[in-house]
Amino acid sequence: MPDVRSHRKRPLRRRALALACLCLALSVSAACTTPPPATNQPQLTYAHQATIRLNVGAIEIVRAYAPPMRAPNVEHLFPTSPMKTAERWATDRLTAAGAPGGAIARFVILDARVVE
């Protein structure tokens, strides 16, 4: 007559082996996922272009556009938003060449949207 204890141990061993195989398969598949590609974007600059000299004492950049951050607008998904691009252009290209304390030129970004 077969031993009842050894019969009970077999299903436990099979379950333990199945669980170990499952854990191994999951860990191997998780290790095989590829990381997202690195986003090494070149720095956006307009310094290579000639400056625009304004006869003012100072230049002020005003960000008047508030992106909605939802569809159909997609500017927030860009590596460099149109707002930052316009701001960078003004910073690199516009120069206050007038007397200090004189007039102030305002570069106002009214619209920097991208709609899909």
Key structural traits:
rod-shaped; alpha/beta; two-stranded parallel sheet; 34% helix; two-stranded parallel ribbon; 116 residues; 2 domains
Can you put this structure into words, describing what you see?
It is built from two helices and four strands, in the order αββαββ. The strands form two sheets. Strands 1-3 form a two-stranded parallel ribbon. Strands 2-4 form a two-stranded parallel sheet. The protein folds into two domains: 32 residues; 58 residues, no CATH class. It is of the alpha/beta class and 116 residues long.
Brief digest:
The protein is of the alpha/beta class and 116 residues long. Helix content is 34%, strand content 16%.
Topology:
Layout (H helix, E strand, L loop, with lengths): L3 H28 L20 E3 L3 E6 L18 H12 E3 L7 E6 L7
Total number of beta strands: 4
Strand content range: 15-25%
Low-confidence stretches: none
Using the alpha-carbon principal axes, give the shape: rod-shaped
Question: Which structural category fits the helices and strands?
Answer: alpha/beta
Alpha plus pi helix count? 2
Average residue pLDDT: 86
Q: Helical percent range?
A: 25-40%
Q: In whole angstroms, how far apart are the ends?
A: 76 Å
Strand arrangement within the widest β-sheet reads 1-3
What's the domain count? 2
The value of Rg in angstroms is 31 Å
